[in-house]
Write a structure and sequence with these properties.
Blueprint lengths: L7 E8 L2 E7 L8 H16 L5 E6 L11 H5 L4 H20 L3 E6 L3 E2 L1 H8 L2 E5 L4 E2 L13 H17 L8 H6 L5 E3 L2 H15 L4 H11 L6 H15 L3 H9 L1
Parallel strand pairs: 2-3, 3-4, 4-6, 5-7, 6-8
Antiparallel strand pairs: 1-2
Length: about 250
Amino acid sequence: MQDNLSSSIVVENAQKGVSRIIFSNSPSNSMPIDLLQELVMTIENLGEDENVQVIILQSGGERTFCSGANFEQLLQIKDEKSGEIFFNGFAKVINACRKSPKIIIGRVQGKSVGGGVGLAAATDYCFATQFASIKLSELNIGIIPAVIEPAVERKIGLSAFSKLTFNPNDFFSAEWAKENGLFMEVFEDIKSMDEAVENLANRLTTYNPEALTTLKRVLWKNTDNWDELLAERAEISGRLVLSEFTKRTLGRK
């Protein structure tokens, strides 16, 4: 059975001081550019809201967390500029998470591919279920996970990132992702994960907001150049997606 979702972003006030962002795009929560742009604005707006201390980032449905960039839009890229704009989508979401003064908790209920792994890595503390396996499939179509690499490597290290990248056909288990630092905790089911998410969010709201904001800056040390870095990475991906290899590969899909 597939998730029956419409393309949308919904913001819910989970409890005092906590806001929940739910992004959805049927059937596998892929992210078209307009949804990514809306997600950036939503994260930024909540970051400026004095009534919000904690943000929970999640997707709709009970299966795939995020299958990455929207494949239909990928096929429509015809020049380097449009390719750069396309890949900048996830770059801007990662930077919005990084620069937000609020702690962002990730809630990952199912599989993540490509940019979806980048979204999980951009959160400050990420929970997952046992079904939340991950994959970086970019080499299969002749590109590389250039934009999300800084966020993912920051969490799991170069060695684990290399293992993911050089095995683009393989899903790595949620336990593997936990052992390597992407997920902090892994649960048997969504219900137990949600209880843990809510418990942490509630507990964080009892702490000094200034301390949380300061901690956020400490956690993201040495990333002040990411606006420029991720924009450069988007250019690289925008160029690679126009290669003859990629055109041939996409033509077969």
